[in-house]
Design a protein that fits this description.
Elements (H helix, E strand, L loop, with lengths): L21 E3 L2 H14 L5 H18 L4 H13 L1 E3 H7 L2 H24 L19 H6 L32
């Protein structure tokens, strides 16, 4: 790790506002970044932008590495590039990638869903919330809502104290 000041162009992957010690690229980190670059390129977010920026470099490194002269140039170029460990971890975060993938799938499903119904595709956040109907306790007691009940009384048909089947007084609820 080095603390030499680098220009923004020399950062291989960089997220705004991140700072700290700079790390050199290794074959392992290049392979990992290349793997996630291919994954992020078709998604959205800051990682996708970074993936688009470094995709050409990675492609050039793998394509032109046949001649020794070009390999030496690529090795010098790689030696001059650095990254923040925090940026690397954020770019290669499996959880963030899975969330972004789910978000894209959800957006596509929402767009397809809206187009099949003949509605314009609007995000869920812009759609009006469904209206909830509140049923008051009085409405439930009066039975005017058509709610099926097994008995109009709360108490059972026979007295719970003396076990008689005869009728008993019921106070009406006001």
């Amino acid at each position: 790790m080095t603390k030499t000041p680098f220009t923004k162009r020399q950062y291989f992957i960089h997220f705004e506002g991140k700072s700290g010690d700079l790390c050199k690229l290794t074959p392992h980190t290049i392979a990992k970044i290349s793997e996630y670059c291919k994954k992020w390129i078709d998604l959205d977010g800051e990682q996708s932008t970074i993936a688009a920026n470094i995709a050409e470099l990675i492609k050039r490194w793998s394509f032109h590495s046949e001649t020794e002269l070009v390999r030496d140039e690529i090795a010098k170029e790689i030696a001059n590039l650095r990254y923040h460990k925090e940026c690397y971890v954020r770019f290669c975060d499996k959880t963030k990638f899975e969330r972004a993938e789910k978000r894209i799938i959800k957006k596509k499903a929402m767009t397809v869903d809206a187009s099949t119904k003949g509605e314009p595709s609007t995000p869920v956040a812009n759609r009006p919330a469904p209206v909830h109907v509140r049923i008051s306790p009085r409405t439930l007691i009066s039975g005017s809502e058509g709610i099926t009940r097994r008995n109009r009384h709360v108490l059972p048909e026979q007295c719970i104290i003396c076990k008689r089947q005869e009728t008993y007084k019921v106070d009406k609820v006001l």
